[in-house]
Amino acid sequence: MSAVPWGLSGHVPRRRRAQPPSALALVYCAAAALTAYALGSTLWYGLAEPGVALAFGVLITVGELARWGARGPEREPTPLGSAGALAYALLGQNAAQPTTHGVLQVVAVVVTAALVGAVPHIARGHGPDVGQVARRVLTVAFAAVCFQPLYNSGMLREWLGHGPYYAICLLFLLALTALCDAVIAAAMARARTRYPYGPLLRDELRALLGIGSAVCATGAVMALGVAVAGLWALPVFCVPLLLTQMAFRRFAAVRTTYRQTITSLARATEIAGYTPPGHARRVALLSGAVGRELGLSEPDLTVLEYAALMHDIGQLSLLDPVPAGATASLPPAEQRRIALLGGAVVRQTGVPAEVAVVVERQADPYREQPLPARIVRAVNAYDDLSGESGGGLGGPLSALEQLRLGTGNDYQPEVVESLARVLSRGGLTPSPPG
Fold first, then answer.
1. Residue-wise over 372-382: b if at least 16 C-beta within 10 A, else e?
2. What pTM was estimated for this model as a whole?
3. DSSP code of 407?
């Protein structure tokens, strides 16, 4: 991505090449060093209980082979593999017999199994994300460090025995592990995107209520099941998570199709010649970046994306297209009429009512608008005025100056300044993975 917003203007100086983010470098280096040490130690001293290690390794490999890809439920592409890795990290007994593997062997088995399961994906050009692998290593190591030394020393058995308190202890450790993973994921996303850390962490924690809770619960059940029934418990207790994974895969496919349908509907104004090619997509992408900069939650960002894609649909009611589709230059009454007609069309598409509200409120004074409507209005005006849509003459800096002059009534100052910060970073920053 060019450092100049949308690569169309020479008014904004090109940034120097960004240095590797320190948080990412720290996470990658820590994961690499831990992996190398764990593999070296395991090769030197050999595997403790090879049968148990092989069983959990096969489970993790199968989970990696069945991963649904980065564009499924983005925050956990390999739920079965993650649950198996957590179960191995928290395994204290096998059929009532104490296990003897330690932290380093846990890391070595998890990494080896994940690499084996990733080979077919790499061969097809869809290898695992490096950040996801680093998170997996550190998260599993955290769980193992919290559990294995205490169990192998006999302290847990002495304090808790093997009754309900032991199960509660496992759930508590898994909750800590999930919190650790959320903190690492938010820090990595902050380093990549420079979005505010608080909203990123909030989204990660909210994601734990979905597939994250299923992964943690399955990991605990697997560890407890193997402790009582042995390794035959693994295929039994992984079935619920496999069914959950299939359901999430279908949900992801439906969501992708839904977004594609909305995108196609938004292109109607381009096909009819009312707006320039790519205008709706540019407004949607830049609005999303501004929304993340301002700390919107994931549900609000989805509403913002849909509204930004369809914000010009009301122009189809015009007899003659507005030159370059630049509605920002129209009289307020005409802007309001187009916005209301657009909202009426959006309400017929079946999208959430909040999307229609954002479209309908485009021409209102910003103090009367919800925040997503303020963002879409400012970004749409920027695209109209900067020359991105072919109608502006002044370029990005002139467009931002005009937006600042309109902050008395039309554009919220905080939104305009957030837009300026996003553009100063090169326009668009990739969204964090979940």
1. bbbbbbbbbbb
2. 0.73
3. T
